[in-house]
């Protein structure tokens, strides 16, 4: 078996030459997707990447820091509308994207304050209340939501030789890689270990010198930042915003993706995002099938494989590492 | 003043149903430390069972018991089929909450599959157009029936938990699971009974809510949130707290709708909850469980 001997080694993405080669091959195949996949799958691929970005963020909060939050739809809406209004005001894409993330992150920081005093179910209700409040505000205040007509976003300038879907796919993929690398580094640093310590026992973590207030607020702010960016990219993808896109269903989908993908796992976030996007894409024709599949996946995950798809992935890898001896 | 009384009464009648939902949630949280997100969907399923019975021309007095039975069976099956195996595998509180969330989605899907997503109207023996004038306020037959049913169910639950041996076993189990097991209390059975009872309370709330709202597979979503909020407001481990929380929430909501802004009715309810929680994190009547590291 391979032993991790130094901290530097622990921080490396892929430690062995073979896994590095496989990773590069996988990235190459995924980057080249616009040139070999049919258009229908391309737009779903774009959705998967933007969704995975948001799930990585929520996994920081739910999986790593262990704070149950049901306010995702609210942060998503704030990110999307901040992005939308800035783009309409003429801000360039990167600036609007960062600003959307910061707006949601700031709000997440504010919402994090109750988390200093509330735990478990109490926190879930408080964040649920936040999500509902944001939804109601956006549905009722037409200055923010653009009224009945909704908010139409200016399209991005598309480089020559690419279709809109292909461009969005590549853009989202690049952003996903960037934000995932950041999150990956974060969770293998002191901050990530502080999150895990808080999740496993906040009292013990505090006794060990983890500043609870700082790290809980940081977890909320960071995850909301990611969800804000997710919302902004979703806005860009949809091209048209209306408050109905940010109902409780978004929260449910994000939550399902986090759980089914695997709590406290970056790879799992991608699997979860793919699950949550592709299941409705395949079974969308039957309205009853999607909740049954989502719920069934959650039940099976929690009963048989609490680490989710990421757990299955680890087991598969272990199997092949020892293959054919076992 | 009459207007105030009228709205307060409307809030009281709505709040009594929130109280029923909250009682079920608290009953489960107290005994199993699980926040049950499937509560609303169990109620929805039960209400649809009642709907099927009543539209076949049978009386509501048959439909309600059957509905309660259906809800209780689902809850008990979930307890033995999902929660117990998961907890054997070491699922923690977060894992159990997530399981109930999964059940909620599954039930929702099956309800859509079985009864369709279009809204129906539940034929109900009590009408909300027939009103009596008592002093300065008007009381509809439905509101009076709702209040009476909620009061009866709460009282029955009170007698069950405080005056019977089974209730004593339930309280012992919720106080200290390991000690209760050591004393020979069949804790699995007691917990399963708590799940069934909670589901019964949810179904009663659902059946009485359905005539005022339209019956569709998602109609319990909002009442579930209100019930959760009421339970949190009163304190998640206090049964009287659930009743107080439900009634307060109902009145606050109704008065907000009357005097401030009807669109922000729900938001105001949640703002109230967050304000209370920031001052008393364990709820109005709750007593937070002490925790060992």
Q: Would you mind describing this structure in some detail?
A:
The complex is a heterodimer of chains A (326) and B (293). Chain A is mostly helical and 326 residues long. Chain A has a domain of 213 residues. Helix content of chain A is 76%, strand content 1%. Chain A has 16 helices and two strands. Chain A starts with 6 loop residues before the first helix and ends with a helix. Chain B has 293 residues and is mainly alpha-helical. Helix content of chain B is 73%, strand content 3%. Chain B contains eleven helices and two strands; from the N terminus they run ααααββααααααα. A two-stranded antiparallel ribbon of chain B has the order 1-2. Chain B is globular and about 55 Å long. Chain B starts with a helix and ends in a 14-residue tail after the last helix. The chains are: A mainly alpha (326), B mainly alpha (293). At the A-B interface, α7, α11, α13 and α15 of A face α3, α4, α9 and α11 of B.
Share of residues in strands of chain A: under 5%
Structural class of chain A: mainly alpha
Helix content of chain A: over 70%
| Strand order in the largest sheet of chain A | 1-2
The fraction of residues assigned to DSSP E strands of chain B is: under 5%
In DSSP terms (H or I, runs of 4 or more residues), the helix count of chain B works out at 11
Average pLDDT for all residues of chain B: 87
Largest sheet of chain A: 2 strands, antiparallel
Q: What pair of chains forms the biggest interface?
A: A-B, 47 and 47 residues
Please tally the helical runs of chain A, counting DSSP H or I stretches of 4 or more residues: 16
CATH class division of chain B: Mainly Alpha
Biggest sheet strand order of chain B reads 1-2
The radius of gyration computed from the alpha-carbon positions of chain B, rounded to a whole number of angstroms, is: 19 Å
Distance between the termini of chain A: 14 Å
Q: In the CATH hierarchy, what is the architecture of chain B at level 2?
A: Orthogonal Bundle
User: What is the CATH topology descriptor of chain B?
Assistant: ABC transporter involved in vitamin B12 uptake, BtuC
What's the quaternary structure here? heterodimer
Measure the end-to-end span of chain B.
Answer: 53 Å
What structural class is derived from the secondary structure elements of chain B?
mainly alpha
Q: From N to C, what is the helix and strand string of chain A?
A: HHHHHHHHEHHHHEHHHH
